[in-house]
Amino acid sequence: MAKEKLVKAITSMEEDFAKWYTDVVIKAELIDYASVKGCMIIRPYGWAIWENIQRIMDGMFKETGHENVSMPMFIPESLLQKEKDHVEGFAPEVAWVTHGGAEKLEEKLCVRPTSETLFCDHYKNIIHSWRDLPKLYNQWCSVVRWEKTTRPFLRSREFHWQEGHTIHATAEEAQTETIRMLNVYAEFAEKYLAMPVIKGVKTEKERFAGAVDTYTIEAMMHDGKALQSGTSHFFGDGFAKAFGIQFTDKENKQATPFQTSWGVSTRLIGAIIMTHGDDNGLVLPPAIAPIQLVVIPIASHKEGVTEKATEVYERLKKVCRAKIDTTDNSPGWKFAEYEMKGVPLRLELGPRDIENNQCVLVRRDNGEKVVVSLDELETKVPEMLDAVRDGLFNKALANRTEKTYVATTMEEMIDIADNKPGFIKAMWCEDRACEEALKEKAGVSSRCMPFEQEQLTDKCICCGRPAKKMVYWGKAY
Amino acid sequence: MAKEKLVKAITSMEEDFAKWYTDVVIKAELIDYASVKGCMIIRPYGWAIWENIQRIMDGMFKETGHENVSMPMFIPESLLQKEKDHVEGFAPEVAWVTHGGAEKLEEKLCVRPTSETLFCDHYKNIIHSWRDLPKLYNQWCSVVRWEKTTRPFLRSREFHWQEGHTIHATAEEAQTETIRMLNVYAEFAEKYLAMPVIKGVKTEKERFAGAVDTYTIEAMMHDGKALQSGTSHFFGDGFAKAFGIQFTDKENKQATPFQTSWGVSTRLIGAIIMTHGDDNGLVLPPAIAPIQLVVIPIASHKEGVTEKATEVYERLKKVCRAKIDTTDNSPGWKFAEYEMKGVPLRLELGPRDIENNQCVLVRRDNGEKVVVSLDELETKVPEMLDAVRDGLFNKALANRTEKTYVATTMEEMIDIADNKPGFIKAMWCEDRACEEALKEKAGVSSRCMPFEQEQLTDKCICCGRPAKKMVYWGKAY
User: Fold this and answer.
1) Mean pLDDT over all residues of chain B?
2) Domain of residue A372, residue span
3) % of chain A residues with pLDDT over 70
4) Cβ of A72 and B34 within 8 Å?
5) A109 to chain B: which residues are within 8 Å by CB?
6) Which of B197, B322, B404, B433 would disulfide-bridge B423, Cβ 3.0–4.6 Å?
7) Do B373 and B429 sit in the same domain of this protein?
8) DSSP string, B271-304
């Protein structure tokens, strides 16, 4: 029937995880492909998820004293080139504007791939004294990176994000900010996206172009691959020196300030899909679900059913983002439709339920059905939404625990990497050559050196020299 | 002293209105100039105004059933060219991306100047049946038009806006939508920006490229010039035909849908500045002011003053967007600072006020001072904020009334246009040649044919043939 048809319309995760993913983004109406290759149209349902992410996160940024600004989308070539490492990292993948109308521009402009250079240029204008510091700025915008291979949300030529850019009088203050924002990201991911993350620092090889240190939150997807979900960078005074930003300190001396930047993007939507989704489609954490509960009248041709369902809907609108579906599609079709869209709770209400002053609440995450008295809805629904969040978090955590391995020899590492997708914990000497050898021999990259270190052995898994750090290795999106 | 210094730091409106305007946008810290000519950095105080505009307006859009989406920022040249009038209107002023990284693109892409073509391309994919209609979409984004001469907020190469794009089964429904959104704009401008507007339809000459009809709200700035503040376009089925968008109607026949688009931009911030500002700086309507009330302790070195002021601030934070300034700057300096920033209400609290359980509230719009009992603050402050809004609206309306003239002959028209900046009402035969003659001889353009028509004479002011419409003429930003 209708439900069967819809469910079978997507590839199963087991069969082809990549195909399952693209089926979900299309069938759940998150995106449509655009006429420009590698770009995407984010449809209302997908954009509403991003708006919820923005709203919650923007509140967290403002609570921690940040202000939003808006920088231009264009960077003159000469400005991009001011910080050496930065331009090397980004120039190969930027889109260049060369003409305005019919005229060739005197200097070509790139569409921002990230805005450090623009912020530095602005800071140089507005920072003069210690009284002007710190500046704790953020912007919500889209950026462009001309990637060769793209996938919706995970890697696209244009993507939406927020980029925080702060500048401080001392290195300590900037370092504190870097870690503070990483913690904001981790809290957001775990509390609102129900997605457990590992906090740590990137190796030198994986650092952001121009950063002294890059911190990251790494999540594990359902298939065992890693997804870098947010990064926070400490720049030291490198950008400030390259751009000649100086200020008069409290002792009336000229000093150089210290900077940070940090960002998360619409990749988070990809992370949600691959962390919580199943063979029936999307499964959304309640905090960011555009629809948290859908009311579906059963046998709605019977007298009083639609009226009672509407009454229930009107009540629930006040406690959550509720929707009622009174279209003439069959209940089965509707079940499949809202399962595909990942709506956390479904409320079924039929003639017999009405007689008994009750309804059935069905959880999307585990299919659990609970009969609830209509008198208790206002307390039960928020409780069940919390339970869905907790259920999702625990399931994702169990998946990560199950798929986290320890390797103490290269043979083990290669065997695990080949046969058991997941995180592999192993010791490392901090030599880049060993990191590159692991990539070549086992196909894994370093995800991070976690804050929570363990002493697995005392030798580097690759070269046998003394180990300095425990690293999470894995294959990544 | 400090206040004197700050006040004198901006040019007076009388002396040089254009210079006064740029002084205000800089001194009130709304913008900074960017390294790309014609682009701007919108600073936290300016961006907070735009965020308030977005929040209120987005609520109005959602109440009228609209959904937000996100289209790519790039349009392939071939897509831009699909609608003939549209491409003629926009191609001369777009920015072209020709290279991605080091490689030349096969087809050049323009940075969207507006997104009709992108929406049409998407609609073609997702619209099949009458069940898929209407789509009531909107997006908040920035667009690029490579203008020769630019001014902050009024005309810049990149600007922020919202663009609504809707598609309907019938022409009537699309026409209704066009007018409905014009009314939303007018309500927003008058209620929240305290800016009276004239609603009307544009002449053919002033129509949006590709539109059948363009409706507009026109506001008058303090200097008598007009500012087009929002437009709403009815496209008929022209775009749908050019893009081959069709749907199966209820009779199972193929039919062509009808479209609209409508937009307002950060120009509105320019409009606010030039409608309400004065020689002390910005004057903000309370609804969109980032700070609605600032608490300034007087003689704050005296015991208990800062404490009491903080207590008052904590109470007022719950009824409005309040701020307290406890820095060591003098009260005079602070008065000038928050006047420059256009904060609607100032609350002064000194030792004698505390003794008398009172404070002084000062209105930014007219300087009125009111002594208010501290017990009544929670009711008095919202009342006074409303009074500021009404005061601003009435002042702006009086300015418009005073500067609206009637011309019945070309001599009168030229005389008024030369000597009395403002709106000039005059009759017109609807011949484009007369419109062009008025531009050439009197330097005025048609602002709109207002919905509220008057029969001033029965002859066209230019050619003397029978008049068909009363038009508002004027000089415009």
Assistant:
1) 96
2) 291-388
3) 98
4) yes
5) 36, 95
6) B404
7) no
8) HHHHHH-BTTB----GGG-S-SEEEEESSTTSTT
